[in-house]
Amino acid sequence: MELIFKKSSPGRRCTMFSKSDVPEANSIPLKYLRNTKAQLPELSELDVVRHFTNLSKMNFSVDTNFYPLGSCTMKYNPKFTEDIAKLEGFTSLHPLLPQLRLGGLLTQGALEVLYCMEELLCEITGMNNFTLQPAAGAHGELTGVMLIAAYHRSRNDKRKYVLVPDSAHGTNPASAAIVGYEIINIPSNKDGLMDIEHLKEKLTEDVAAIMMTCPNTLGLFESEIDKIAKLAHQKGALMYYDGANLNAILGKCRPGDLGFDVIHLNLHKTFSTPHGGGGPGAGPVGVKKELSEFLPISRVVKRDDGTFYLDYKRPNTIGCIAPFYGNFLVILKAYAYILLLGKEGLIKTSEHAVLNANYMLAKLNKYFTSPHPKRCMHECVLSGVHALDIAKFLIDRGIHPPTIYFPLIVKEALMIEPTETESKETMDHFIECMIEAARLLKEDPDALKKAPKTTPVGRLDETKAARDMNCALL
Amino acid sequence: MDIPQGSLFTKEHEWIKIDSDKGIIGITDYAQHALGDVTFVELPKIAARVKQFQGLATIESVKAASDIFSPLSGEVIEVNAKLENNPALVNQSCYSDGWIAKIKIKDASEKKNLMDTAGYKKYVEELDK
Question: With contact defined as beta carbons under 8 Å apart, do A231 and A199 qualify?
Answer without folding.
Answer: yes
